[in-house]
Amino acid sequence: MAWLDSLSPQTQFVFFTLLKIACVLGPLLTLVAYAVLAERKVSALIQDRVGPNRVNLPLIGSIPVLGPFLTKLGFWHPLVDGVKSFIKEDFTPAHVRKIYFWLAPAISLVPAFLVIAVIPFGSTLGAQKMVIADLNVGILYTFGIVSLGVYGIVLAGYAANSKFPFLGGIRASAQMISYEIAMGMSVIPVFLVVGDLNLGKIIEHQAQNGWNVLPIFGGGFSAQSLLLIPCGVISFLIFFISALAETNRLPFDMAESESELVSGYHTEYSSMKFGMFFIGEYANMFAGAAMMTTLFLGGWTLPFLGLDVAPADGEWWKGLLHIGIFMAKMLGFMFTFIWIRWMLPRFRYDQLMDLGWRRMIPLALANIILTAAVLALTNR
Amino acid sequence: MIVKRNELTWFERLYLPALIGGLKVTSRHFLNTLTTKTPVTQQYPEEPTKVLPGYRGAPYLVRDQDGATKCVSCQLCEFVCPPKAIRITPPGPTGKPADRTNAEKMPEEFEINMLRCIFCGLCQEVCPEEAIFLKSDFSLTGLARSEMIYDKEKLLALGGTHPGIQKWKHKLDEAKEQETFPVKV
Ligand code: SF4
Ligand code: SF4
Question: Inter-chain contact A46–B33, Cβ cutoff 8 Å?
Fold first, then answer.
């Protein structure tokens, strides 16, 4: 690595950042594809079905046990789905507003990837921190970007120039704006406890003082950590529900609601443009899962076996393990998302708004006060 | 009937009981399907569908036990067919005679357009000769529209023999009996 050391620090920084972007985007897109497969398989299992089990690749399929097993697992379906969405006809209906029609899929795709940039997905590997952009205002940035996500949907609804997408767009805008408030308020207790906006610092704090969702887990028993349990649980639940709403997942998939609005905001889309909405939705889910892992479940740390501190020099296996822990937590959340989708029916629109404005926002406000009171009482 | 709607208790309004119930049901199904491997899915092309009696599949012409065409070209089915899927060319005065006794004629050509057929079964219902039956075939495919028009040969081949009553057989016997004029006691 002599040539690397000969570079100036700035060039090194650029090099490593680009490398990290590549190393995050590639697996993320793969994960998105396989999340779709997981969605289909889990739904199949919940509904006593078999699920996708057809695609067979010529060479690998003829390996005795492995080939048929992978086929049964539906392992190659994401591949074929991807190819399919590229080679399908990309049809633009005559009545759409072209510029917005083209813009909307991109706008709904980009924010999800931008959010991933600030997530610390591991401790360190060598001298590199496992986060693309170590921002001091990590969460503010996230909320800023996440709120851009709604534009993709609203624009798609507007651009399609027909009633179902339009209704989907309207619903999405109202829903996402309301739930963003609840979401933003639900993380304020986390800031109060941690006292920092940097996501890396939040993880560090959780490694020392216990996970934010359950401060006695990892933080040991003290008056403060015991009193903070309800605060942590409430803010976690509100964040989780808002995340479902923000990512347009059932039971809050008002924008899509295929049984009412055909397919909601992407009714008029086909081929890869539809695929981009799809990828955007799942990437958003991953972003939400990663945020929850970071904010509430201690990110890449585990409070035992010394896994809660950044590895020392030469302990690269520990760095990899940290990435693995982060992935496991995130995938757990993904599974929960999927599970919930196949469990709960869709909320009615007024119930959704009622839950957002009259239940969750007041609860989140009360939780802020409660947390502040606990912190003040236990002297911090 | 008037269904009494009970007010929800505050606990129920928390949405939690419904949530927990849902979690229980879905996880039970998930684990059962994962472990005992009894999904309800029928893997169609590998596992053939069982066709139950009375199923109305594709209409085919049938032959009788002696291998003779049963259809007498009366064109009732052509007339009754709602989507006009059947087209019959009668033999005319100079056509080939019927290949069984006691039938005046048989169709020169008999075509069913399987793309038009709605499998209603009216042709089977109306046929005075029990010459056309809706069999159990349900997946008819072809590479061109012309392939989907089944002609007489094909219909007879697909229909096979129908070992049912031969309507005119005993009439023939009766007629023969009358010639010898047996005295029945
Ligand atoms: S089944 Fe009905 S539609 Fe089909 S050929 Fe017979 S009468 Fe016509
Ligand atoms: S199939 Fe039956 S109804 Fe149709 S022409 Fe022949 S004898 Fe008549």
Answer: yes
Q: Which domain covers residue B114, as residue numbers?
A: 59-166
Domain that holds residue A112: 91-377
Q: Does A220 fall in a domain?
A: yes
Q: Which site among A39, A42, A50 would you substitute to test the B interface, given the most B Cβ atoms closer than 10 Å to its Cβ?
A: A50
CA–CA gap between residue A256 and residue A270 (Å, rounded): 15
Q: Which atom of ligand 2 is nearest to the CA of B61?
A: 1
Residues in CB range of A62: below 8 A, 6 or more apart: none
Long-range contacts of A202-207 (CB under 8 A, 24+ apart): A202/A138, A202/A294, A202/A295, A202/A299, A203/A120, A203/A294, A203/A298, A203/A299, A203/A300, A203/A301, A206/A298, A206/A299, A206/A301, A207/A298, A207/A301, A207/A303, A207/A308, A207/A309
From the CA of B70, give the closest atom in ligand 2: 7
The stretch A86-96 carries a mean pLDDT of 84
Give a yes or no: residue B38 inside a domain: no
Assigned domain for A16 exists: no
Q: What is the pTM of this model?
A: 0.78
Given the CA of residue B78, which atom of ligand 2 is nearest to it?
A: 4
Q: Is A81 among the domain residues?
A: no
Return residues 1-20 of B near A (CB < 8 Å): 19
The residues in B 24-43 lying below 8 A from A, measured between CB atoms, are 25-27, 29-30, 32-34, 38-41, 43
pLDDT(A290) > 80: yes
Residue B160 belongs to a domain = yes
Select from A44, A49, A344 the Cβ nearest to the Cβ of B22: A344
Question: Given this model, what pLDDT does residue A235 score?
Answer: 87
Considering CB atoms only, which of A44, A50, A342 is closest to B43? A50
CATH number for position B159 = 3.30.70.3270
Q: Which ligand does the CA of B150 lie closest to? A: 1
In chain B, the number of structural domains is 1
Q: What is the mean pLDDT of residues A288-315?
A: 76
Beta carbons of B30 and A46 less than 8 Å apart: yes
Q: At what angle do helices A138-146 and A163-194 cross, to 10 degrees?
A: 170
* Any domain includes A12: no
Q: Is residue B10 part of a domain?
A: no
pLDDT at residue A307, rounded to an integer? 66
Mean pLDDT of chain A: 82
Q: Total structural domains in chain A?
A: 1
Q: Please tell me the distance between residue B94's alpha carbon and the centre of ligand 1 in angstroms.
A: 29
pLDDT surpassing 90 at residue A138: no
> Does residue B178 lie in a domain region?
no
